[in-house]
């Protein structure tokens, strides 16, 4: 028997999903180890080995593949714990990261301090030399300026350098020359070139991507080396892949070359899982872990990729799967502010010390403590009984809120519970209502260990009609990693328009993209028959400031003049879909061309062959438990069902609780659930 493994490190727990050669999947969890993530990585593998009754060494020898979603780079950026970066720009353009793209602020935000640039002014150096928009050298590169910048960087203790020169995406000669000199002058210092990391015509996004990439390069490289060393010490001989932010996996060498693609990579796996679990066209994915609640959406059964992700006040620069996060997890701390209002999060108890009920030194009330007090979470069956919770400690923590608010313990616990729910509803509305999408028309897929506890009330608030509690909900992101593809994105700049379409130039660009995509997939070990390529272009109406991305089909990776009307019509339709208008008589400009290389992995679809036996006879609760009901203001007894004992077609009606080893689901009145063929609980609200 051989295994494939996905490990997702969260704020509180590290999830490990294991698929054997028959496609049978099991989930394991162990506490996250902040500061030593590689230790938690190995710990959860040992837990999995124990679950299969194997010695760790024997289990490691049977693992063919490990895929991994990391939060290391995201944490470094969010906590502003990146390395010192030097930035080299074209003379006269020192303020690219200051001016950004002139973003429009809110109508009433008329007194704002303009945010500081990502790289401080004293670490930003300029060099003489100029390439124009057609790739012609207007002024030669000043090699003396480059050497002077290197000398100043050395004196300032710079740990990485980003280079962003004007129009390097058309002619990279100057950027390449700068790197050659910097490598001589600053040996061992990583150099990021903007035209390699983010080849697009917009200077700010290209250069901010290079700066961010450089700032996390040593951090990601060190983490990967530690992880590789830890696996080597365990005699792991299989393949290791890392999640990227475009919804797929990358080999280690590619991630080291482009570490920016690891930013926010873990949360992108949850929507990939939802894509596989449901055929619904419009899906909302909510993933509530220990620290955050991550929400994403699928439209027309397609992942939404955004070009405008933000890290604090700066754009990430590169496209990524659109996932929004708020500080609303099981470990989110509740407190009463100076105005006497209850607040929950964003501060979290994390993995250490964790919620008060963990008994590891935490004393502040958290969402998990509230759920214990409400009776929804069974202290004796947390993680299938492997981790006992202390109800008395949870009650003592929640009592602090009750005293401040002047209410009973149960009322305080419910206040924490419902406040957390409304925080998550706000995040859902941000990605649906504010994007012109009615959440009532969407199917909700729960992810993370805590979402199923909260989804019933959130569904009623949002007016949802249906939702799913997946069998592997507590490790939804890990499941996404286990079944997702190997993916990479390549792009090339070539400005043309429908008024004078440069067919030959476009085809040359598409050929280069196809070669780069083929090379990536070949290095990743993907067989030619398992390779897929998706094309798109960035387009705009003439004189518009910003482009939109439009997919198109090309059977052999080339276009002809006969394809132009189809490209133009695709742009008009996409523009109308996004902005509700189209201008058929305006010139359409094409600014860049993109390719997404997709490699199907061996065994990633085996899970679909494992279906549940049909439910035989009536279902019976394993127990009954009292939970606090706000509507009646008292504790009421509801049936508790064991998820593992339910067969396909089993039906249940709320109010009730459904328990699995790694999560608890709470169904309210009027919520009707049914187990599907894969063991997922699908709920209809009547």
UniProtKB/TrEMBL annotation:
A GO MF term: 5-oxoprolinase (ATP-hydrolyzing) activity
All residue ranges annotated as the Acetophenone carboxylase-like C-terminal domain in the record: 505-678
Entry GO terms, CC: cytosol
Domain of life where this protein originates: Bacteria
One Pfam match: Hydantoinase_A
Hydantoinase A/oxoprolinase domain segment(s): 206-489
GO biological process: glutathione metabolic process
Domain Hydantoinase/oxoprolinase N-terminal: 5-185
Protein name: 5-oxoprolinase
Organism whose genome encodes this protein: Mesorhizobium sanjuanii
